[in-house]
Amino acid sequence: MKRRSSQTGAPLFTACPLIEDPEALLADLRRLVDSHRLSNHGPRVCELERRLKRMWGVRAQTVANATLGLELAFTALGLRGKAIVPSFTFFSTAHACVRAGLEPVFADIDPRTYCLAPAAVEALIDEDTALVVPVHTYGNLADFAYFESLRERGIAVVYDAAHAMGVRSRFGEPAGFGDASVFSFHATKIVAAGEGGAVATADPALGQAIRRLANFGLINETEVFEIGTNAKLSEVHALFALHGLKSLETSIDRRLAVMDRYNESFGDEAKLTLPRPQPGVGPNGQFYPVRFRSRKLREKAFDDLVRKHIYPRRYFAPALHQLAAYRHSAHGPLPVTEAVADTVLCLPLHSAMSLSNADFVADALLHSLRPRARRVPRESLSPRVILT
Ligand code: T4K
Predict the structure, then answer these.
(1) Cis peptide leading into residue 318 (ω within 30°)
(2) Does the pTM exceed 0.90?
(3) Does 20 have pLDDT greater than 50?
(4) Number of other CB atoms surrounding residue 10 within 10 Å
(5) Nearest CA, atom 45, ligand 1
(6) Omega before residue 316 within 30° of 0, cis
């Protein structure tokens, strides 16, 4: 008999994009087709930028993806020298620095938030430091108090906010901090447009420069003073992002319900370290990272889950300084980065995930950790969250 992998028998991936109202999206796509306007700052891109600006309170400049958003933000700031970045992040953070002509220097992270550790950054700052790129890892917010103070010391700060759409903070709207913050609309993100991104900035000149660079460097049809690229968001992607934004709150609520369910299931499991809530932060449930006591346990769990057609991801292993591409890059001591990269696993968590599938994943993981344990049956599921 074929073994079922979830309540529906479908594989369970770490991420899965959700279109909340496909009929409404298809109707809008029909209108888009009839409009014959597919790119170059058309009405949907403009509408998306207006909506994001309303939400963030600062200018929103759409881009083709967050990787290019980071690169163009660094380029538009006109920086030269070193950029302090985490090694525990997606490739884009450091790649964008190199492509913008900056030299990445890797700093260690905080073991509770997985974001850059201020003390580690401070120890690496020297007269060549032009930029620091804190990543809001998994939707945890970097330490604004420290990083904003760097700007007063003449160091540019651009937040990699690829994971942070919809995160709230008692310190203010996260998108309003830094020289800029760069968000992603990739298929794996909460607002899933397939590809896409947006740069938030309170500096109108910086926003304008990023817009220019994203459009080949054109001033007008005949004037180009700088070498730009093509990083424009298409109308199709903007339409998907607009639909994703409409259901942002619902998506976050569903994700948080799944997180609560995981927390409840793993609460007393000493072999796991669960994500810790940050005081004063309203999380978005972008990822659910668990840490294992050892790499061996993590690898066993990974294999056991995959056998049940559950596909977690080792975000972010290997750490960037462990890659051949960065073997010559400078870095400080990275003990936390290496320990986390060795032991972390992001479990399936997405806006369409049911609590019953969360239970299925939790049971599979607990069984991997304590193969002889028996599970207590659960009470019935909340109907609001039953999707897949
Ligand atoms: N900064 C940080 C900190 C980031 O994490 C990222 C991207 C960026 C910057 C740059 O943002 P973008 O330039 O992409 O806007 C994925 C994404 O490609 C990447 O966007 C993301 N971070 C990273 C965390 O994950 P992969 O190679 O792990 O994706 P993939 O194809 O293995 O997909 C992961 C899971 O998602 C799969 O198990 C299946 C599911 N999935 C994926 C796609 C593409 C779907 O269900 N539908 C889909 O269409 O990198």
Answers:
(1) yes
(2) yes
(3) yes
(4) 13
(5) 16
(6) yes
